């Protein structure tokens, strides 16, 4: 199994952190992993994306032109990456700020109001974990105990007290995600 993922949005939305946690979770699951961030010089508020590859086999290149999954958090990223999802792939997006919703008919599309749910938790920094939870519900490619280990590995020890809040946000994302178009059943973790 190889899963090629793009996570894209504005700097400050936790795009790179979400990719890092997903990558560490794959490592904890003994998978081969690639994590390749890309962001503009303005960082917070500018565009940011990260390509993550999780595979049971050796990864030949971290450079991707197509993705199995796109997690989209702003309109610029929707415009750029919707067409790059492989037919039969998955696109998850937060509709906040999206004016042109996805139009593809050959992919599974899911939506999550991540900003709204993070606001309900009284911590907008959990936004990315709500989004991650929605992805893991629709396509559970890593086990939740490995996500916990990924959180421990990626967060500095001084922030480990926030792990329960992050895990709560992941659970909320899993509960609140809505699949609005389904193409095929996605593979699940054994």
Characterization of the model:
The chain is an alpha/beta fold. It has a single domain, classed as Pyruvate-ferredoxin Oxidoreductase, domain 3. It has helices at residues 15-28, 75-81, 114-120, 127-138, 144-154, 163-176, and strands spanning 2-10, 32-39, 47-55, 67-72, 85-93, 108-111, 178-181. The protein has a 7-stranded mixed β-sheet, with helices on both faces. A hairpin with a 7-residue loop joins strand 2 and strand 3 (47-55). Helix 1 (15-28) packs across helix 5 (144-154), helix 3 (114-120) packs across helix 4 and helix 4 crosses helix 6 (163-176). The longest helix has 14 residues, at 15-28. The protein is globular, with a radius of gyration of 15 Å. The termini are close together.
What is the topological layout?
Blueprint: E1 2-10, H1 15-28, E2 32-39, E3 47-55, E4 67-72, H2 75-81, E5 85-93, E6 108-111, H3 114-120, H4 127-138, H5 144-154, H6 163-176, E7 178-181
Parallel strand pairs: 1-4, 4-5, 5-6
Antiparallel strand pairs: 1-3, 2-3, 6-7
Helix pairs in contact: 1-5, 3-4, 4-6
């Amino acid at each position: 199994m190889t899963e090629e993922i793009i996570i894209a949005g504005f700097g400050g939305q936790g795009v790179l952190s979400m990719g890092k946690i997903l990558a560490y979770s794959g490592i904890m699951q003994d998978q081969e992993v690639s994590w390749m961030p890309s962001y503009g010089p303005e960082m917070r508020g500018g565009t940011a994306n990260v390509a993550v590859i999780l595979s049971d086999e050796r990864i030949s290149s971290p450079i991707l032109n197509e993705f199995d999954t796109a997690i989209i958090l702003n309109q610029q990223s929707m415009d750029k990456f919707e067409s790059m999802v492989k037919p039969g792939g998955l696109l998850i997006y937060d509709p906040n700020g999206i004016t042109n919703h996805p139009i593809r008919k050959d992919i599974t599309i899911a939506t999550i109001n991540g900003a709204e749910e993070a606001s309900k938790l009284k911590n907008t920094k959990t936004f990315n974990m709500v989004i991650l939870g929605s992805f893991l519900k629709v396509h559970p490619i890593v086990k939740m105990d490995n996500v916990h280990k990924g959180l421990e590995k990626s967060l500095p020890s001084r922030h480990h007290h926030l792990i329960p809040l992050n895990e709560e946000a992941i659970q909320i994302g899993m509960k609140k995600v809505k699949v609005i178009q389904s193409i095929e059943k996605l593979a699940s973790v054994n």
